[in-house]
Amino acid sequence: MKKYKRFLLGLFFILIVSGIVFLIFQGKNTTLDIHSAFVKDLYCNISPNKNAYILKQFYDSNGISNDYKINIGILNIVHKNDPGILDALDVEQGVKELLGEDATITHETIQFFINDHCGYTYEATDKKYIPFDGCGGIPDEYIYQKLLSAQKVGDKIILQEQILDIFKDLNSNEVFVYNNVEHEKLIDTIQEYEGIVTEIDDSKYIDAGSVYEYIFRKEKDHYVLESLKKVG
Questions:
Q1: Rg (CA), the chain
Q2: Can you state the angle between helices 66-78 and 37-46, rounded to 10 degrees?
Q3: Among positive and negative, which fits the CA dihedral 173, 179, 181, 184?
Q4: Segment holding 9, helix H or strand E
Q5: Beta partners for 186?
Q6: Alpha-carbon distance 86 to 64, whole Å?
Q7: Which residues contact 153 (CB under 8 A, 6 or more apart)?
Q8: pLDDT at 37
Q9: Inter-residue long-range contacts of 167-170, CB under 8 Å, 24+ positions, other chains counted
Q10: In this predicted structure, what is the pLDDT of residue 17?
Q11: Which helix (H) or strand (E) holds 33?
Q12: What percent of the chain has pLDDT over 70?
């Protein structure tokens, strides 16, 4: 009888401990609403420029390009207040707010920046970024992004998205739909397409797109991008 009671007490203790552990982990892992302002801001701040020329530099398997870092640093400033000419130190701070205090950039002129300007000329003497117009020919290409999920895991935020790269050959009017910016897989070819690629029905193809995972870490009072990787 005593053995039976000890067995029940032991079992009860195990269940209590298991329940506490479960609650702890449940408290650390939280599903977030992908339509919430917090998630949208986190997502759009790091991927604000829908121009394919720019976004390709974000998904590069070799890491985020210097050009892209400058772009998001500038956008981080002008979304709050566009002063026109920008100080290089302000651009650096804009990058650090999104990528972390250890993020670095090499100052240089950037092109195909889309914010009512076609680029910014970097003046090394004055350490200023000066906006300019006149983009020239821009290919009809579109990176379609669909946010799939958002989760808080401990002190990190994990977002998953699915993307497509839709490119139009302006000579033949053929449209090519790829699973990612590296064109690993051709999903479809549309012959003699007369419209612009942003009008194509993305939902028809998105399930075949590549899946990427963003990991943000808490730094001071906000989140910064820690890593981006293709997971599917």
A1: 23
A2: 130
A3: negative
A4: helix 2-28
A5: 178
A6: 22
A7: 28, 29
A8: 94
A9: 167/52, 167/139, 167/140, 167/141, 167/142, 167/197, 168/139, 168/140, 168/141, 168/193, 168/196, 168/197, 170/139, 170/140
A10: 43
A11: none
A12: 82
Handedness of CA 49, 50, 52, 57 (dihedral sign): positive
> 């250890």: which residue's tokens?
102
CB 170 within 8 A of CB 138: no
Token couple for 142: 């579109």
What length does the chain have? Answer: 232
| Amino acid occupying residue 91 | V
Show the tokens assigned to 88: 């290089």
User: Average pLDDT in the 124-148 region?
Assistant: 85
Question: What gap in Å lies between CA 149 and CA 165, rounded to an integer?
Answer: 20
Task: Give the Å distances, CA to CA, from 99 to 75, 93, 229.
Answer: 13, 10, 15
